[in-house]
Amino acid sequence: MKTKRLPLLDFVNHKFHTPTWLFFVLSIVFILRIPSFFEPYSYGDEMIYLTLGEAIRRGIPLYSGIHDNKPPLLYIIAAISGSLFWFKAMLAIWNILTIFLFWKLVQALFPKRIRLHKVVTSIFAILTTIPLLEGNIVNAELFMIGTTIAAFLVLLTRKLNFKNLFFAGMLFSFSALFKIPAAFDLPVIIFAWLIFMKKTARKDILKIGVSSLFLIAGFLTPILITFVWYYLRGAFNQYLVAAFLQNVGYLSSWRPSDVEKSFLVRNAPLLQRILVVLLGMVILYWKRGKLSQQFIFTTLWLLFSLFAVTLSERPYPHYLLQSVGPISILLGLLFSNKNYEQVLVIIPLTLAFFVPVYYKFWYYPTTTYYARFVKLSIGKITKEEYLSTFGNQVPRNYKIANYIISSSRPDDKIFVWGDSSPIYALARRLPPGKYVADYHIKDFSSPAETAAILTLEMPSFIVILPASQEFPEIKNLLFKNYGKVEEVEGAQIWKLLKPTLRGLNNFNFSVK
Questions:
Q1: In 3-state terms, what secondary structure has residue 136?
Q2: pLDDT tens-digit series, residues 56-108
Q3: Which domain holds residue 494?
Q4: Is residue 411 part of a domain?
Q5: What's the pTM value of the predicted model, to 2 decimals?
Q6: In a domain, 235, yes or no
Q7: Which domain of life does the UniProt lineage start with (predicted)?
């Protein structure tokens, strides 16, 4: 069934020509990403993704066999990459393609405004690349904005028939299968259709309804396929809880003291943010006759993306990447427009800059990041000194991993207590249980349950990192079955004893 194009941004499907300036921007982006190819195994999230990717490569089922709380696409990319270097390289390629698609989207929104294309695309390229918002780190946001932009591009430049609507819905779904908050970008287009609907064309409500159903059907299909996939592998409950239901707990999770308060009090900030989005939509609808469709669409995109960014109220800077698209467009309008909308964009931009200030989002220095790489490149600092700039524990983790690699087989299990994920990723060894980070054990399991798994599985090595939380349940296991074979900068490495030595109790072991 085909539907006529709805009255949203009725653009001509231009033939796009890639200009020289865009090649220059993409070349700069690639150059800015070169230092990321030489980053050490250090960033916690990347280490978890790589460890789960290693598990996938070995046939261990996600969620039931090994755990994290995101949908599967990012772990699958980690499995394909196989190492941090290729993980970063795949991100670089994806980011360059995303910038190209974003330029096409901007060109569709603002035909023939070359200066605006340059400004907006350049802002987007820089903000999604530099360390300020963790553009150098492999995180779900950098992948999901690519498929979201592709979905908007399809909806704004193609006929709104079943095929294109369903395909756009699938692209939104792929975004959500990188990370659930991406789903909040889908309503942008539906509410835009409703706002642009003419008062004298109420019959368009039916067209909007049908098109929305096609779009939502496309969105739900890949997600339902993943449900069937994990159901057939006996991991449906674990998948549903880990990838979807546990993320509900992110709401206000940065305020753990509010857990015992009433529903309205506990969720008052969330309800306030919902009201802000609703108020913004009402104002856009009220003033739609005086505002351009481009301005309305971009502001809607900003409102919904900021709502998604602040769902958990956590101050991680990579969350803000979801809003970089509309922010870049609005900044471009501020710098390039010469009409009253140049002033109006200050309102949504004020909201965009208020959010990171109010929620105290972190940020990372950019000049320091590139300066230390230059020092490494020209030999002013050694490789170990370079590793130390990412944290004093990084060289130690490399030494521990090298020891484990040389003293064990690839299929041997190890257990690390403390900041564990970098060692798992570096050594390419898996834990005996399903959790690869100590906070996973604290949040979703318990030391007692972990000790029981260790007693049953008997990993080849147990590593106790310095400054780790007390783990008294493991002392007896270590005393009976393990011997401390190495200590690396305060980290204890314990090796499983031979069966004939088990039960010896005359060793003077100490566990910090």
A1: coil
A2: 999 999 999 999 999 999 999 999 999 999 999 999 999 999 999 999 999 99
A3: 392-501
A4: yes
A5: 0.91
A6: no
A7: Bacteria
